[in-house]
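Incident log, structure service

09:12 report received: a user says their structure output differs between two submissions of the same chain.
09:20 pulled the input from the user's history:
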Amino acid sequence: MAVHLSEPKNLLPVAGVRLGVAEAAIKKPGRNDLLIVELAEGSRVAGVFTQNAFAAAPVQLCREYLQASSAIRALVVNAGNANAATGSGGLDDARATTQAVAAALGCAAAQVLPFSTGVIGQRLPMDRLLAAVPKAAAARDAGHWNLAARTIMTTDTVAKGASRRVQTSQGEITVTGIAKGVGMIEPHMATMLAFVATDACLTPAATDAALRAAVDVSFNCVTVDSDTSTNDSCVLCATAQAGTRDIDVDDVDYGAVSAAIREVCLLLAQAVVRDGEGATRFITIDVGGARDVAEARQVGYAIANSPLVKTAMFAGDANWGRIVMAIGKAGVAGLDPGKVGVALDDVILLEGGEPHPGYREERGAAIVARPEFTIRVTLGRGDAQARLWTCDFSYEYVKINAEYRT
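09:34 re-ran on a clean worker, output below:
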């Protein structure tokens, strides 16, 4: 039911990256569910992770390994089991997974970052997972990005990926990324995973800066259901295989490369919302006239996460009173309702706190009947603004999550 989203075609290979997949029957047999991503020696890697207090074992291990060293040589991802809320045993399993991958690739276990997604509270089937590691390692190929995107899916209906090429003073640079996630989505990054790679010679500092800047305007601006997963992770790998010199944040080429990374992350983040569990509407929320960006996002998320707003949008019901309710409950201190405006696309509903005299119900209904539209809000408090993306709540959302473990 994804909204205007189709599987990516011909994701571009990135020099210094090889990907291999295998079937480990982690949740059920008959599909690839284990991914190994090998990175060239000298790659620079940065990551941002969930703020959930029950951060999964692989998230804890990623943080530990990245803090100790940036000399990462591989990523390993399993679908079907989150390895979250699994205690010390889950950490042992994550470490054993990195050790197995390290043995297969000829690197140190601390150079392998683990990632998991799926059911929370269950131990990984380590016998099957470890048996699949050599198979995934043996299948490594630079052209397996599309295969990798399908391998990490759980309740996703469409694989998610994007590629961009950009010209720099050092020649052409490639950026390719894949992501998974359709439910339990409100990242606060920093179950959503995203892996982006570029062959650019970004320094470690530039890699980290480019990732955080991209995440701030992409993955940190989407929500499906307000739930921050235990496993949310977004990683940027710069393999340093293209170009002739390092690119730091003050380099002439940094702007072009970071813009390409930002665009890939934005496309991936929007794909997550377009494929929100049971989604039938892709909704942009623009909030302006705020005192600062944080305030604008506060209001935007109040609207985007309101079940009453989301169910009305699913029904194609222009019940804009629910939007006003959400603005009012956002907790903005000193908000003056007399200065608030609300519109659906170009149809004004509320202006200066008063219902617009030219509004007609059929005009609003025509907007929310579309698969894509924008809710526009102005607060009349300043010049700051923010843009977020969300989806509706359909019957299918309830069905998918009610039957998630059956």
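09:41 both user submissions now match this output. Likely a transient worker issue. Closing.
09:42 reviewer note: DSSP finds eleven helices and 15 strands in the chain. The mean pLDDT is 93.
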